[in-house]
Structure formats: C-alpha cells, structure tokens
Design the sequence.
C-alpha cells in the first residue's frame, strides 16, 4: 500500500535573505528590527527566535501575486542567517500551540471552500493527507488558530510505501 508524503515548507531562502538585507515587505516598508523576548517563531527555520536574539517583523504575503485571496499579515524572521527548515512529514518545532488552522488553496492560489478548519497540532499530518485527497487542493497553509497568522506552507511530497507493523 502507498501513501503520499507531505512537506512543510518555510518561506523561500531568497526572500528571507532579501528581507534581512532590508528589502521592503508586502506593504513596501522596511522590516522592523527588534530584540526577541523569546518564543517568537521564525518563518525561515520554523524554530523559535531565542530571547535576546535580533529579529525582524514584517508584513508577509505568501502568494505570488495580488488577488482577493492573497492574505497579508505580520511574521517574524531571524535577523541573522538561519538554516532553512528541511524536514519532511515532521511538524515544525515552532508549532507549539494546541491547534492551528489548516486551509487548502487551489492552483489559482484561491481558497478551496470547505477545506479550512481548526486542527489539533498532533492531527495536522493526518488532516493534510485527507485534504490532499481532494484534487482541487494544490497546497495548504498552516495558520494560527488565534490570530490567523501565516506559519508555513504544506505541499504534497513523494509517494511512499506504508510500512506494515509486525
């Protein structure tokens, strides 16, 4: 039996580098620089920005072009280079809340209605697989269940064999 893998993807490394170099955010403003009080999630390494580390706050639009469904909101990013998150099928370490919104988008970057909902963190992988059974869904966003802030993108990965327990 086969199952589809899923991949949790951070913001692209070239975007993170551009913001660190002072490129304007989605609103045309320079990212704000601050010192972390601890616990802020970086959208590039998908880990926490430790207390005392410099970080950026900026308006981020995780869509390729403007259109009515292209939500923009605040995110945090390490102000210095950090490794890009690369794990497959592993819920990123920054997802520490009890639950998140998981929402599907079509190839046209618009919400696939009926796909969104609040999901317990430990159920994100299973729910992502369920949503990807719908051929209309090209990718998913993980967003904060409290503030709707963008966390990361989820895409289909390679097809993998299911291992039999035994």
Sequence:
């Amino acid at each position: 039996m086969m199952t589809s893998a899923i991949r949790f993807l951070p913001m692209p490394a070239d975007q993170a580098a551009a913001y660190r170099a002072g490129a304007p955010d989605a609103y045309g403003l320079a990212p704000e620089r601050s010192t972390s009080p601890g616990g802020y999630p970086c959208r590039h390494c998908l880990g926490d920005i430790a207390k005392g580390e410099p970080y950026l706050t900026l308006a981020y639009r995780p869509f390729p072009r403007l259109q009515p469904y292209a939500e923009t909101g605040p995110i945090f990013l390490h102000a210095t280079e950090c490794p890009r998150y690369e794990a497959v099928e592993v819920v990123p370490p920054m997802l520490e809340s009890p639950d998140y919104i998981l929402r599907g988008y079509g190839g046209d970057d618009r919400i696939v209605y009926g796909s969104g909902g609040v999901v317990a963190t430990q159920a994100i992988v299973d729910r992502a697989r369920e949503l990807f059974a719908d051929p209309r869904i090209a990718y998913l966003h993980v967003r904060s269940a409290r503030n709707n802030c963008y966390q990361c993108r989820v895409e289909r990965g390679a097809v993998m064999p299911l291992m039999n327990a035994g």
Residues 2-9+91-156 form one domain. Confidence is low (pLDDT under 50) at residues 159-166. The radius of gyration is 16 Å.
